[in-house]
Amino acid sequence: MHKGENYAQIVVPFRRGTARKAGAKPGDLIVEVDGKNTHKVELKKVVDWLRGEEGTNVTVAVRQPGAKKTRTLRMKREITPFDTVLGYRRQGEDDWIYRVEVSAPVAYVRVESIRASTLHELRQVERRLQTDGIRALVLDFRGSQGEGILHHGTLVADGLLDHGLMWQVRDLHGKVTEYRADRECLFRGWPLAVLTDGSEIDRVQAAVIAALQDNGRAIVVGEPVKCDGYVSTLFPLGQAQGAIMLRTARLERPGKGQEWNIQPDHLVTLDEKQRKAVHAWLTQKDLPELPPGTDDRPPEDAQLAKSVELLKAALAKPSSSSRR
Q1: pLDDT averaged over consecutive 10-residue blocks of the chain (324 residues)?
Q2: Which pTM was predicted?
Q3: Domain 85-316: what homologous superfamily?
Q4: Which end of the chain is more exposed for a tag (fewer CB within 10 A), N or C?
Q5: What are the residue ranges spanned by the domains of the chain?
Q6: Architecture of domain 8-76
């Protein structure tokens, strides 16, 4: 909410979103929704007015703070696609800078979440990085979110590993199913580093990180990762009464069983001030453009710096495909 004018405010319209396509601008105040005045209306209610069935229309009147003239945005409600794989710094609305240092062939990729599209996005990034002469990669999982769908994590881990046992699942009856990677592999021969921030993360992200570490595919830099290690299944309740999520199995790591406190290979911690600065910078990556006055310079980040140092050292060795 804009404190001075008491209207709901658009910070930055989503990239590829219906509001952005209709002409919404950063900082716009939402003055009306389908003719209903929004002055001093609580944000949740304004959001409810904006929501509706996919394919239906909504008309929104907006203006910039302090302006008198309003603009009318006519939109069709639709699902907005979100990227799950982001680069180091945004270069325009649809492009990224991936290099952390101009002179080093080390790229940075943030895996914001693991969804059905993530593996395809990583494939696209690989082609771009190969063209750019990149030979090592940082995968940033700090603050990564997920839908809890193990299949999506299986696709990503399989895509990053050149064979090997990723994990196994033990059901309520003790039956064990192994999940193995095939020989097709993205970023083949490149040393990889994974960044973790010590927060409790989704089991799918944890499974991917553990698989990369357990198979010697990546070094883990940062802080210990916590995860409950359960596999959940969604059961419909019938008669359009929704669904319920129940734990139905346990994930197990090769040789480590149900141990899901993932310890980094290189422990690097951040103090509270650094953590907040890094989190704010990571959050900015979602925005197609930054609000006026936003500082877009990368903050001091000891975890990223350590990973780049390790990858450059790995590239300097005769064989850069080993884990250390």
Answers
A1: 90 83 91 96 95 95 94 93 90 86 96 94 97 98 85 96 95 94 96 92 92 97 90 82 87 84 95 91 75 77 98 86 44
A2: 0.82
A3: 2-enoyl-CoA Hydratase; Chain A, domain 1 (3.90.226.10)
A4: C
A5: 8-76, 85-316
A6: Roll (2.30)
